[in-house]
């Protein structure tokens, strides 16, 4: 009997029993945290089951590894953003810091922006951040990046386009 002949829920249960512990151990080696690894493995299965035609996958471990690796990178990126935010917050007067709820929203927004900007070349990403976070003018950005003002305009157009597309989706 082929896998596609099994009822979908039975196949999903079989795959979970066969591959979950293996994936959690594999992610545990990378994270150093059993609980975080288990979360990543569970989320990888959840994302796998949301993919159309997942039951036709010939190499479930390969696909699960790819999904889990992407989740792991997202986790690391979020941790790095949180650490950068906390370092910044440590330099600010306590009275001006946002509430825990606002902090969570800020970190979620930063994570979303980081994900969008990941599609840019490093200089284009820096140009966008110099403009939006530091308030630099295009000539100032051009000087810092050692490119022409016209190139900064192109970088900004690329970044704004990605932001627009992310907003639209």
Automatic annotation (TrEMBL):
Which Gene Ontology molecular-function terms are recorded? DNA binding; sigma factor activity
Arranged from A to Z, the UniProt key words for this protein are: Sigma factor, Transcription, Transcription regulation
Residue span(s) of domain RNA polymerase sigma factor 70 region 4 type? 112-163
Read off the InterPro entries from this record.
RNA_pol_sigma-70-like, RNA_pol_sigma-70_dom, RNA_pol_sigma70_r2, RNA_pol_sigma70_r4_t2, RNA_pol_sigma_r2, RNA_pol_sigma_r3/r4-like, WH-like_DNA-bd_sf
Domain RNA polymerase sigma-70 region spans what residues?
Answer: 17-80
Q: Which GO terms describe its biological process?
A: DNA-templated transcription initiation
Question: According to the lineage, what is the superkingdom?
Answer: Bacteria
Looking up Pfam families in the UniProt record yields:
Sigma70_r2 (PF04542), Sigma70_r4_2 (PF08281)
**NCBIfam families under this entry?**
PRK11924.1-1, sigma70-ECF
Q: Show the PANTHER family listed in the entry.
A: RNA POLYMERASE ECF-TYPE SIGMA FACTO (PTHR43133), RNA POLYMERASE SIGMA FACTOR FECI-RELATED (PTHR43133:SF63)
Q: Family assignment?
A: Belongs to the sigma-70 factor family. ECF subfamily.
Q: By what name is this protein known?
A: RNA polymerase sigma factor FecI
Q: Which organism is it from?
A: Ralstonia edaphi
Name the gene for this chain.
fecI_1
